[in-house]
Amino acid sequence: MDKVIVELCENYRIDRVTNTLEKIFEGMGGIDSLIKPGMRVALKPNLLLAKKPDDAATTHPAVIQAIAALVQKAGGLVSIVESPGGPYNVPSLKRVYAATGMEDAANETGAQLNFDLRVEKIDNPDALIVKTLKILKPLRDADLIINVAKLKTHRMMVYTGAVKNMFGSIAGLEKADYHLRLDQYDKFADCLIDIYMATRPQINIIDGIIGMEGEGPGSGVPKYLGVLIGSQNGFAADLAGLSLINVDYRQVPVMKRAEERKLFQPDQVVFEGADISSIRCEDFDVPALGYPGNKGVGRKILGFIEKIFRPKPEIIHDRCIVCGKCIEVCPPKTIHKGQDNKVIIDYGKCISCFCCHEFCPEKAVRIKKNVARRVLEYKRTWGSDD
Ligand code: SF4
Ligand code: SF4
């Protein structure tokens, strides 16, 4: 049985967050049973990009601060470790730590902000796709990883929570290589699962006090949910997160593939704490729903059509400040500046990974659905045998 604990937490006041996390750790057997004195504990937040906490694109610093203090009280030595989007270097880390409030959380607790840029190559023999990978050395060296995710929508993967958050254990722009090599959504989902299984955080916490709906993970709208979720199993934590926002887990490629790979059994998950059905957000906006994950004869055909007729990114030139971030992060390097200094996408090579959308600081990339996509989604709903 995999236990998941869902606890109400109305706001980010540090005493309230601490109290809620204590209950969650209690549900896992108590923090003293998890953390031993002298243990090196790495907190892995979601620090997608340099946004302030109120934007809800990143794990709130109050959650990190509270976990750090509780771990320290139990005798653990805390570091905050993350590879945000874009280049992985010290100036970029400093900028992200300052904007997201991690610097303040570290100052309040004495937790260490990571600036060690080394990676370590590890074998991942049980993986389906990612048999070897290079992960951030400070995560590798930690005795225990606490994965502290943010509950958000994701234009490519539908949802991001605990499992997807461990993609940030891959350094900087190397993440783009995975997008490039694995341009089918199911395969990319398998890659995310492989990375999660390789890093295997012992504790997963999802910051769902204020999540992000709409154009997540970077350009969506903050949405109040009022919960913190905890589990030692990231899939179980995500099952709770999805149930909270009223999304069938089978519509999320990572969860669908994890179940197919027998890494996750929804009927083996036990919920504790708040009753999700009474706090569920019925109108959480999840625009990427429409993943063709139906079982049966039509699946391969639907998958083929889905790949051809995927939505595409479009630059909103009125908003674009030509900062070049999208050009930097685009895995197939299919974005460039035209002669008039406008940003242009060559759709011939676009793999619809939406990294440009994810990292644009100006919300100047929108996702366009085409007519065929709408037909496909109609077919998916109509033809579902789940
Ligand atoms: S990241 Fe956004 S603002 Fe920057 S160049 Fe690309 S579209 Fe324009
Ligand atoms: S243009 Fe955007 S969606 Fe297309 S491949 Fe580049 S980053 Fe991905």
Describe the structure.
By secondary structure, this protein is an alpha/beta fold. The chain is built from 16 helices and 15 strands. The strands form four sheets. Strands 1, 2, 3, 4, 7, 8, 9, 10 and 11 form a nine-stranded mixed sheet that branches. Strands 5-6 form a two-stranded antiparallel ribbon. A two-stranded antiparallel sheet has the order 12-15. A hairpin with a 3-residue loop joins strand 7 (about 145-155) and strand 8 (about 160). The model is unreliable at about 295 and about 380-385 (pLDDT under 50). It binds iron/sulfur cluster (2 copies). One iron/sulfur cluster binds near residues 331 and 352. The site of one iron/sulfur cluster has 14 residues, from helix 15.
